[in-house]
TrEMBL record:
Compartments where located: Endoplasmic reticulum membrane
Protein family according to the UniProt entry: Belongs to the SPCS2 family.
One Pfam entry name: SPC25
Function: Component of the signal peptidase complex (SPC) which catalyzes the cleavage of N-terminal signal sequences from nascent proteins as they are translocated into the lumen of the endoplasmic reticulum. Enhances the enzymatic activity of SPC and facilitates the interactions between different components of the translocation site.
UniProt protein name: Signal peptidase complex subunit 2
Xref: InterPro entries: Spc2/SPCS2
Species this protein is from: Brassica napus
Length: 195
């Protein structure tokens, strides 16, 4: 019976290649998203949806231009229209890149405000794991830092070696404890709802 229990815990364990820094960051980022959403914060996917819509429009125009039924002399007006659309599509692509550069940065999760909370802003959770470093930095900030109800930014920087075994298994209990402590630190900075 104990062997089956050990096998089931090994199957549920999150294992990663310790030599692959991208997979370590990905594993930690997914765990952070799970922790934050388990605390009652709902994910805000509006920015992701906007990027998907912009990308779909750009791809649709490119596909129509490439696979239009008629051959060259007959589709001349259509090709001129596609060529005229090209600068507009570049502007859309520039808008998408601007959104990534200014709004998203290192963000891994955007949330709505906590239900029943006095604050009118959600969270922006971002992380960094520099190349050739084992220091993982997790930051929780307000989605609208200019808002009067925005909390102060909180962060921690710790070595990833604290959360992984030698075999590359994430010790979720320790990681959850650190992330939840950071969420509590941010929540303590927020204005409380008066009863």
């Amino acid at each position: 019976m104990e062997e089956k229990k050990a096998e089931s815990t090994n199957k549920n364990a999150k294992k990663v290649n310790l030599l692959d820094h991208n997979s370590i960051k990905h594993m930690l980022d997914e765990s952070v998203s799970d922790i934050v959403t388990s605390r009652g914060y709902k994910e805000d996917v509006r920015l992701s949806n906007m990027k998907l819509i912009l990308g779909t429009v750009i791809i649709a125009v490119a596909l129509v231009a490439q696979f239009y039924n008629k051959k060259f002399p007959e589709n001349r007006d259509f090709l001129i229209g596609c060529i005229a659309l090209y600068p507009f599509l570049n502007v859309l692509n520039g808008v998408m890149q601007l959104i990534l550069f200014t709004k998203e940065k290192n963000a891994i999760l955007f949330t709505y405000p906590l239900e029943g909370s006095f604050t009118s802003t959600g969270l922006v959770v971002s992380s960094k794991l520099p190349r050739f470093s084992d220091d993982y930095t997790l930051t929780i900030d307000s989605a609208d830092p200019k808002s009067i109800s925005a909390g102060k930014s909180v962060q921690f920087t710790k070595s990833v070696t604290q959360w992984f075994t030698k075999e590359g298994v994430l010790v979720e209990g320790l990681f959850w404890k650190d992330v939840e402590a950071l969420i509590k630190d941010y929540a303590n900075e927020e204005p409380k709802k008066k009863k």
